[in-house]
Amino acid sequence: MELAWAFLTDRAGEIEDLGDGSRRITLDARLDQIDRRAVLAHELVHDERDILFSAEAPPALVAKEEALVEAETCRRLVPQRALNELVRRRVLDGGAVTWREVAEWFDVPRDIAERALGQLQRASLSAHPSTHRRTA
């Protein structure tokens, strides 16, 4: 695996197959430390999944893979058990957790903090479906 920096114009990072089992991850040189960490984690998940697309790939297929990679990246950068503990402590103190607190606590960008809270909420809803009313 090679790691490189460049001034990317349309994305924060990318992964390329160099052949012979080698890959290169390129990060935008303008990223700050928090964004750099998140983008690198995202590209490493792509590498682990071993699913890389060419420019000719169907957009719907790319979007589906990106959603899976984004969800996994979020789970790794904001572990659900640690997020549960943060939320529990805040609730016991009479407060609530915002994306800003999650971002600060886990050193992640806003989009990952918001996604983590959304994943936690969906997990809570699926774990306790009887406590939520449905409207027709």
Write structural notes for this entry.
By secondary structure, the chain is an alpha+beta fold. The protein folds into two domains: 1-55, no CATH class; 78-136. Helix content is 55%, strand content 14%. It is built from five helices and three strands. It has helices spanning 33-49, 59-77, 80-92, 99-106, 110-127; strands at residues 2-6, 13-19, 22-28. The protein has a three-stranded mixed sheet, covered by helices on one side. Helix 1 packs across helix 2 (59-77), helix 2 (59-77) packs across helix 5 and helix 4 (99-106) packs across helix 5. The longest helix has 19 residues, at 59-77. The protein is elongated. The termini are far apart.
Main attributes?
136 residues; alpha+beta; 2 domains; 5 helices; 55% helix
What is the residue-mean pLDDT, rounded to a whole number? 90
Order of helices and strands: EEEHHHHH
Strand order of the largest sheet: 1-3-2
| Count of spatially separate domains | 2
Provide the structure class: alpha+beta
Portion in helices: 55-70%
Work out the number of β strands.
3
How would you characterize the largest beta sheet? Answer: 3 strands, mixed
- Low-confidence segments, given as residue ranges, are none
What is the molecular shape? Answer: elongated
What is the straight-line distance between the termini? 52 Å
Q: Give the DSSP E fraction (strand runs of 2 or more residues).
A: 5-15%
- SS field, number of helical segments: 5
As a whole number of angstroms, the C-alpha radius of gyration is: 18 Å
